[in-house]
């Protein structure tokens, strides 16, 4: 039995656009299979549900770009761009590879439009850092709103990426998982 929970639009009322299942990511090629699913460990899934509930009365929903990232995928990303400011060194283990992290943004609950966060997802620049004041005030407010929802729900944030939230002390409490943990739902092509 897998320790991961599948996250779907129907089960969790979220939008899912897994960036690494397409060529629309910083590597320029798919990292996951086209049919890749979105998964989190049970502790992270519970916190995601809290965040969804906090966003809903504000007329907002969550859009997920990445969640569980198999260890094999972390190595592919690291080998492409070994930047410890934006990617976890796979030798240490990424919270994504533990099912303990999620990359996401806020969207309007009616139109589905993404709120402006000042940079795109996976923009590996200082403008992506929390608290960066080189982005306009509306984008700063949107980042603070996302951070407020996620931290109130119990998530920790990563200071260099406005989109990344993870469980506190994930490395101390969760193992790194391989793609094989998903059985027939494998993510790697």
UniProtKB/TrEMBL annotation:
Tree of life domain: Bacteria
Residues of the active site: 161
Taxonomic classification: Bacteria, Pseudomonadati, Pseudomonadota, Alphaproteobacteria, Rhodospirillales
EC number(s) reported in the record: 3.4.13.22
Single GO MF annotation: D-Ala-D-Ala dipeptidase activity
Record's keyword terms, sorted: Cell wall biogenesis/degradation, Dipeptidase, Hydrolase, Metal-binding, Metalloprotease, Protease, Zinc
Function: Catalyzes hydrolysis of the D-alanyl-D-alanine dipeptide.
Cofactor: Zn(2+)
Binding site for Zn(2+): 96, 103, 164
Classification via PANTHER family: D-ALANYL-D-ALANINE DIPEPTIDASE
CDD domains linked: D-Ala-D-Ala_dipeptidase_Aad
Enzyme class: hydrolase
Protein name as it appears in the record: D-alanyl-D-alanine dipeptidase
Family under the similarity heading: Belongs to the peptidase M15D family.
Reactions catalysed, as given in the entry: D-alanyl-D-alanine + H2O = 2 D-alanine
Site (Transition state stabilizer): 69
Pfam families assigned to the protein according to its UniProt record, in alphabetical order: Peptidase_M15
Cofactor binding remark: Binds 1 zinc ion per subunit.
């Amino acid at each position: 039995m897998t320790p991961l929970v599948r996250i779907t639009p129907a089960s969790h009322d979220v939008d899912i656009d897994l960036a690494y299942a397409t060529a629309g990511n910083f590597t320029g090629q798919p990292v996951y299979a086209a049919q890749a699913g979105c998964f989190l460990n049970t502790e992270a899934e519970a916190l995601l549900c809290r965040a969804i509930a906090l966003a809903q009365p504000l007329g907002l929903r969550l859009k997920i770009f990445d969640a569980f990232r198999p260890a094999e995928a972390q190595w592919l990303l690291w080998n492409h761009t070994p930047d410890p400011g934006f990617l976890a060194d796979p030798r240490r283990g990424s919270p994504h590879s533990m099912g303990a992290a999620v990359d996401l943004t806020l969207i309007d609950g009616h139109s589905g439009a993404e709120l402006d966060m000042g940079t795109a997802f996976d923009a590996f620049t200082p403008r992506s850092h929390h608290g960066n004041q080189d982005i306009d005030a509306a984008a700063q407010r949107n980042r603070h709103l996302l951070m407020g929802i996620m931290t109130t729900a119990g998530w920790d944030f990563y200071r260099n990426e406005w989109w990344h939230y993870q469980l506190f002390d994930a490395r101390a409490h969760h193992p790194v998982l391989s793609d094989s943990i998903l059985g027939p739902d494998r993510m790697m092509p």
